[in-house]
Design brief:
Rossmann fold; alpha/beta
Length: about 280
């Protein structure tokens, strides 16, 4: 049994906590403002951006710590400020408090994103590919990754693709309503992972002996946006999305076009419940 802290117990972190607790681990979930109790593990109230508050609330003698927090946009604040507060400052504060303790965790896990890659022509990328983020938010995530890498604590970064699953039906809704469009030009490749597989991948790496410093958390099939949209239209029994006009954008065009390999994760023995978008979206429809 391990003692695990999940800093940021939201969409993925809460499922991770439930899975760890069900496997017999002692789990604490840190939230800014716990609004509900968990039957599976203990919730703590704490703010990653306030180091003194972390000193007061973090349990002693932790074996593993997972930074899975997500940014919250404050009134009048920018997205970049929210990212910096949670990912860079928050991780820095967490590492600082952990390093002050006599009993240090065996490993710290940081949940990052495939947005640290800037490739946009459908290139294949893996953990060793160049990282040149196209946006400031990706720059901040990459700085946080390097902060963990430079710390005196063993660390592993899991770069997740687009997370979808229960409650996240934006793409399904856009196809059902006829609002989805397919952009013209070269195929635009997307990478994703179902929420439950993201949580299971984190638990697998926690329980795996000496995981690599960086792993890609994506399913087994990067897919062109038009394939995904047409699959959803077929499953929903609606008209396939039309081609976009020159001034229209598709719902998937927020990130660069790249194809992420998950070979390193698979080599650890991890098995996906939803190996592609087909199984994942079919379970939601």
């Amino acid at each position: 049994m391990a003692r695990v802290l999940i800093a940021g117990c939201g969409y993925v972190g809460s499922v991770l906590g439930q899975g760890l607790a069900a496997s017999g681990h002692a789990v604490w979930g840190l939230r800014r403002s716990p609004s509900k109790e968990s039957d599976a593990f203990r919730l703590l109230c704490g703010d990653l951006t306030k180091v003194e508050a972390l000193r007061d609330v973090l349990p002693e003698e932790l074996d593993f710590v997972v930074h899975a927090a997500s940014p919250r946009l404050a009134a009048g604040g920018s997205v970049e400020e929210a990212y910096r507060a949670v990912y860079l400052d928050g991780l820095s504060n967490l590492l600082r408090v952990l390093l002050e303790r006599e009993h240090r965790p065996r490993r710290v896990f940081f949940v990052s994103s495939t947005s640290v890659y800037g490739q946009k022509r459908g290139e294949w990328v893996d953990e060793d590919s160049p990282t040149h983020p196209a946006r400031k938010t990706g720059d901040i995530l990459l700085l946080a990754e390097r902060l963990l890498e430079a710390s005196d604590l063993p660390g592993t970064t899991l770069r997740l693709g687009g997370i979808y699953g229960p409650g996240r039906t934006r793409l399904i809704d856009s196809v059902r309503s006829g609002r989805a469009v397919v952009a013209t030009g070269a195929p635009h490749y997307t990478n994703r992972i179902h929420r439950d597989d993201a949580a299971r991948a984190l638990q697998h790496l926690i329980e795996f002996e000496n995981p690599a410093p960086v792993c890609l958390g994506v399913d087994c099939e990067p897919a062109a946006e038009q394939e995904v949209l047409r699959f959803l239209a077929d499953r929903l029994a609606v008209e396939p999305p039309r081609r976009a006009a020159p001034d229209e954008s598709s719902p998937m065009r927020r990130a660069g076009s790249k194809r992420c390999r998950n070979r390193r994760l698979l080599e650890t023995g991890f098995e996906f419940t939803y190996p592609s978008y087909r199984e994942g979206y079919a379970s939601m429809i």
